[in-house]
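step 4 of 6: structure.
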Amino acid sequence: MINFITNFGFSVLRLSTPIIYAALACTVTKKAGLLNMSVEGMMLCAALLGVISSALTQSVLLGVLGAMLAGCLVGALISYVNLVGKSELYLTCIAINLMATGGTTFALYMITGAKGTTFSYLASLAVPTIQIPIIKDIPLLGPILSGHSLLTYLAFLCTALIWWLLFKTRLGLRLRSVGENPHAAESVGISVTRIRTTAYLIAGAVAGLGGAFMSMSYVAWFSRDMVAGRGFIGLSANNIANGSPVVATIFSMLFGMADTVANILQLTDAGIAYFVKMLPYVITIVGMVVMSVFQIRRRKHMKQKAVAAAIQEAAAEKQT
Amino acid sequence: MKNVRRVEAVFEVLRIVVAFLVAYGLTLLVLVIISEDPAQAIYSFTVGPFTTPRRIGGIIQKAVPLVFTGLGMCFMYSVNRFNLSGEGIFIMSACITTYFALSMQGLGLPKWLYILVLLAIGALVGFVLASIPAIINVKLGANIIVLSIMLNYILLYFTQFVLTRVVRDVGVSYTASYEIPVTARFGELIPRTGIHTGVFVALLFCVVVTVLFKKTSLGFEMRTVGSNPDFAVQIGINAVTTIVLAQALGGALAGVGGSLEQLAMNSRFQWTELTNHGMNGVVVAVLAKKRPQYVILTALLMAYIRQGAQVVSSSTDIPAEFIVLVQGVIILMVAAETFLSKTRNKIIYESALRSTENSNAA
Amino acid sequence: MSELLRVENLTKVYSNGFVANSDISFSVNAGEIHALVGENGAGKTTLMKMLFGMEDYQKGAIYLNDKKLEMKSALDAIHNGIGMIHQHFMLVPSLSIAENIVLGIEPTKAVMFNYKEAVRMTSEAAKKYGFDLDVTQRVSDISVGSMQKVEILKALIRGVKVLIMDEPTAVLTPQETRELFEQLHRLQEQGYAIIFISHKLEEIMELCDRVTVLRKGKCLGTYDISDMTQERISNLMIGRDVELRFQKDDPESGEDLLLVSDLIVVGDDGKRNIDGVSFRVRAGEVVGIAGVEGSGQTELAAAITGTEPYHSGSITLSGEEIRGHTVRQLREMGMASIHEDRMTIGASVNQSIRDNIIADRFYRPEFRKFIFTDKKAIDEFVDRCIEEFEIACDDADQPVRMLSGGNIQKVVVAREFTSGCRFILASQPTRGIDVGTTEMIRKRLVSMSHENKVATLLISADLNELLEVSDRLLVLRRGKIVAAFPKASEVSEDKLGEYMLGIRTMTPQEMEGLL
């Protein structure tokens, strides 16, 4: 039983990692006033480039940097088309995701000659796992918290970093002002285009880390469509969190838990396994629905209270 | 002012043509760079689709599902909701159609009725499934792209469950369903081209959808809601119903497309991953500027490119996926408002100046 | 006084071919308050945007201290010493006053934003220019007058020499206006140049030194205020003396068509936007609603047309409660409405004239054949409308966005006036449109009521319009009716203004029987 709990806890952290990165990447652009619907494409490109560059350079660091660069490049492309080309964001992101899916498959095939994976074709590296000294010896918590990929710990660090960036720095102040009232920002000479481009580049780098996790930690190779909607799951975690990096991380972990459950249950029956595979996606939809209903209810309730109070007040005034 | 309209209209078409040409040109360039035999690759890609009757037939064959998903996306797009569930619906309705085709084989239905019932089932599947994200989106404000993509994954896994557990023919060595009876399948229209009688159904739907868009109340309501939802509400149009209904109908079309593809092209259901027909439908609809009357044209165009890619990949070592470049670049350029806008504005400016000069002179 | 800013031959053509400004030239001196006037649509806003680097132009040049300016953005304009106070404030609600003011020129400590320094800087500047502000307050919590001060401070702290103010008094109370004028005079003494855009001629006469008049995108010239009268400026702006007051008979009012009683509409913030309003509109009469903008007009209109819910009280149309009816049902019951915001809600500007005109009736049997739309019937109808309402266009296929403001409004009224309505709600029906169309719309409103026995509710910010068109007048202030006049023709503008601004209020007893 204890074994099960530690395994489960460990898996939740592991499987939440890419979703956290995705959610944070979305948070940055959301604060700048734009939805980042191509985080999926960013992660996919990053995952591939991480594998390629780590295989070529035989350096984990350069591999991860390559992944981040890939994310940034995708971010740059989106901001160019969206901000300079003034394109519809939805369509742009659809096109980018389409190109990322097809493009990575194409590259994969060109490299390996078969459409499957880079496994055994490319000698790519994995990000090292870390045993945290003292903590690893704590019973129960130790095996859950210790022994993760460096990128998993970095994900939580990123949450703090993004929070600091958004609320404590000059860039964050400008970013929030652009998101809340772009005309105001523009009128004091803050370039909305530049800030939003910066937001997309940061998002690209963060999503790049998520992609790197997929191909350099989760597994140590690239396979087609390996992000499998995790970018979108992160996007919905961010949507639910309404722009707060901390809440986004918490919800990412919830979705990560669904993924874990799916992973554990999968070991049984092959036919039922397909239903289990649906779980993360079903839970994401359910999560979105529940949160929206909750928010709408709360807003409605507050409004009803305000209305009732106002009407009561009006009646009281009439009496006097 | 008439000048302005003419210039705008010309540029609307020009933008698409130029976007296509640029994307196509870029693709050719990439082909030249990555191919060991550039001349052969370019020849295969551009002329290849027309070299044999079977290849020409292949264009039409490939265009048929794109017509359906493209028309479907026209519905979604016309109310400005990028409901991408067409992708999942396509495979789902093919799967469900297979199931019903197999379970109805004992009924002895005449061919036309058999097929009609199966297509209707496909339509129903699409109608119901597309309205799920549509309703959640309008009622709760959840992001439609996320919803529909999540749905696509769910549908994919569901079909795989059905494939392995319900309809799988254990007698064949690969994962596939039992064979669908010939009476339920579309026949070949022109021998040795692969062109099947389903083409007529596609043409029929093009006409029906065009009429629906241009000549019915629903078409007007969709146009108005898509153009200005606040106006629509103020004028008495039920925007919520219109938005959901449009997407459900779009899904129904994708559903018919999936059914028809299954009944016309494959004797068994054997897809194990998403087919990309839905996403290609987006490209078709974008190129057609969400106007159903142009969908045949743009579907053929995309089919031609896919056929070219297939010829290339069969004659060289280049995988067919390189055409996503064409698709992506087309969407990006058509979506970019500023693309060619400078030239257009300059022309409009000059014509406006000319006309003010004329009126001053008069 | 030395010349500070000079504009030569500025010409701007928008991408839809509309010539917004042609050959505009004028100059502004240091220490001058310079008025810029023109009717709505005369090109003031475009001119200001060009001066502030927000729009490019095809011809001409802008000079500051004889140096030709090349401005690509608002930032360039600010760097060059030109600041602008927009009509809609350019503030970020969730940030504090200090953060808003220093936005773009933030003090930093390493890469961190130095909030303490920002507070110090801004409170110092506020003191220096005599603004009474607590800079740590969040902008979402402060009054409109304070927001304007924040805007001015934002410009001053950046060292601008020329301050453009776009209708700054439109949102202010009389006291706030007075305070603003004092502040502007103080800035004037310190050598700042102020470009003051306004419709309010008496304010211009009181405040400004010179005035530049625009008409239909052209500059008519610059005049010393001391040589001008309000009438002359008005004549220059409008171009001819318009006798708008037209004769109309007293109405013969019939049964109550619209009955509003004890209506309460609460906003999201719990504020009572409509606070216990009761009145009736009878067949055959025009009831006008006056009030300073934001007194609840928008909310009242939305409740009556059934587009937003109301929370207490009742609204009935021909005896039937509005709640529980869809907008289409209400329209079927004889309601028509001209929305105050014609560009985003009243019309669908990207659709054709035809689509706009038939938008509320495309489904009716006379426009249908079997299950299809009857294009011939629709075309005939639309062409008749275009002819009758003299909509200047190429044909019915033209997108509405290509028309001028007046013609767009003609499309709207062509739809609403021909709907066969029994009750019409006209919100700001002539705001910002040309004199000819204005006259047509006003005459129609009156004749529809008096001759066709339509009940009309007119909500307008234009006092002239209210006094001319209405039979009865009500004044709305802070969501309440504070005055009712049985005969609009006997009310003076001054008196109306006093009620609108809250200088006077009628008691319920005084209004009894007049609602």
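step 5 of 6: annotate
 - The longest strand of chain B covers residues 188-190.
 - Residues 2-34 of chain B form the longest helix (33 residues).
step 6 of 6: archive
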